Amino acid sequence: MSAFRNPLDPNVTLGACPCGQHASAAEHDAQAATGERSDDDSIDALNRRVVESAVMRALFPRDATRRRFIRAVGAGTALSAISSVVPFGALEAIAQEKGPLEKKDLKIGFIPITCATPLIMAHPLGFYKRQGLNVDVVKTAGWALIRDKMLNKEYDATHFLSPMPLAISLGIGSTAVPMDVATIQNTNGQAITLHVKHKERRDPKLWKGFKFAVPFDYSMHNFLLRYYVAEAGLDPDKDIQIRVVPPPEMVANLRAGNIDGFLGPDPFNQRAVYDEVGFIHMLTKEIWDGHPCCAFGTSAAFIRENPNTFAALYRAVLEAARMAREAKNRELIAKVIAPTAYLNQPETVVAQVLTGKYADGLGAVKTDPNRIDFDPFPWQSMAVWILTQMKRWGYIKGDVNYKQIAERVFLVTDARKRMAEMDMKAPTTSYAKFKVMGKEFDPAAPDKYLASFAISRAA
Amino acid sequence: MKGVKETLRAALLSFVILAVLLGAWHLATLPKEQAAASDDEYAKLMGKGAKKSDGFPTPAQLGETIVRQLSDPFYDNGPNDKGIGIQLAHSLARVGAGFALAMLVAVPLGFLIGMSPLLYRAFDPFIQVLKPISPLAWMPIALYTIKDSSVSGVFVIFICSLWPTLINTAYGVGAVRRDWLNVARTLEVRPLRKAFQVILPAAAPTILTGMRISIGIAWLVIVAAEMLVGGTGIGYFVWNEWNNLNLTNVIFAILVIGVVGMALDILCGRLQTLVTYVE
Do strands A211-214 and A261-265 pair parallel, antiparallel, or not at all (unpaired)? Predict the structure, then answer.
């Protein structure tokens, strides 16, 4: 019978039928029952029509209005006008994923820091809902608790520190449960903050005896701080003290004088400045520009049991990351994630972190649009670097098969597939060289890199 | 007549103490003149001029917060932002569950231990070792074995409210006057009847004292436990406001915790007077 009804045709009625092809739901059911389908429409064209119809119905709930609009401006103009605001391509890609969702009600854990921006903003902005998921994002008190709640299966997926899934998968500081990194949440976005009383002691060589806080043993913060002080000739295990303090408690501890400084996640660096208890010594971007910090991931078992749900979740987070990468959206995002239900911070603090225009606590206003970025691609070379540092500081003993672990935990293949669906550019390689404090890291020769450090616990 | 006068005087004195405290607080937190910042943009980024949520609040600010929080205690903005009423309900439910379970174990077990000197000696070393352990020290083990954070919270309440009731029950049962037991024996009362009609009423005041101590400890511990595991409850509320360094809300929560704790204690006190007898 009828060909697919073109939603851009002013003479066609878009009825209550779910596929948009029939005038009424009854007619749709009748055709579905006979199994009849027009042969001349390819699946792709069909798909596009369904998506277009859905969008048109959403834009013009009253059919008469739609017909009048298209008659007035013409179908071509209407389509281009609408597609400029609605990403038809992305919507079609979503519609193509036919598999039904295995699980719709999900719990995702997060720590209230700006690293988790994509994961958090996807909730108020409705990115999870758009994928048909009913997600609760649950604020959590610390990284150890995130680990325990993932192991307990209380959370379906979570915000991780990027070294955590590596450590948990290896059974270091935990029982061994395979965990996977789906995307990197953020790059850069951390800083070394010192107490205001140390304004005159900016040279790390003068930091002997300092007490520093990091969020967790298995964190980029710990590894970057150790790297930084070791480059200045201090042994991080002997010359300074490194304590684990949950990020939200860092400012309170700095104010109380329990610690001299911290290498921690934002917004707490900026919050220390805002409360006039600390100043930003340096952004971690100056140690390694483009370093990963947090990740979005889940257990290998969850992915195996709920592949379609995982794919939908993946798309929601990627969509958020794409929006977060655009500088023009940052002010809006700050407004959305600052309230009590999410970060619970003054909006200006979050905005200073995200826009990169900030007060440094020493009386200057600095501008650095790359203070934080949200490149989602899980480079396996990053995983290899993390493993070299875990070995360097004695968290892993013995031989490490760097590549094998990196490739098991950091899911680049999935990332490429999902990013392609979203029209996002994914790199074609999984390993890249990069520089940390001016020293080049070659992921192909991790052992040589590890042997090159003067201060090291590696045997 | 003299009693009423005494009460009035005590109330007056309480009021004076409160007024002095509030006055001192008000004077100590009077806003200081802020130095005029040279760089406007920097000052704006530092939040100068705007109302900052940190710093010690004045009594007026606290009053404002109390009115705001209590005018809408049951709002629910998703899992991370709930009204104070809902948070309290979560905490009370946890305390209630843990406490009830503890009583189910502590009272019968205390009875057994109290009636048998042999069991008393056999159990004594265990009780003495387990009693002084801070209930929060159980948390990592509970999280690891129970694999559920809110059940772990209930378990911690259970373990901390167990000991005072257990010990008091055992003591109360053991200290029932010998004469009464002898009378029961002369009348050939069966053991079950003896337990319920002679020993229980005699030991009830001591048992209730144990319960009163237990519920007090349980309420102390729930705040700390919820700060540790998060999610919901009044402890989580304190933790969340601590993140934001919002002392006004923290002080408000402290007041609420105090009032609820007092209410629980009064409730137990009433029960206690019900079972108290004069010899």
Answer: parallel
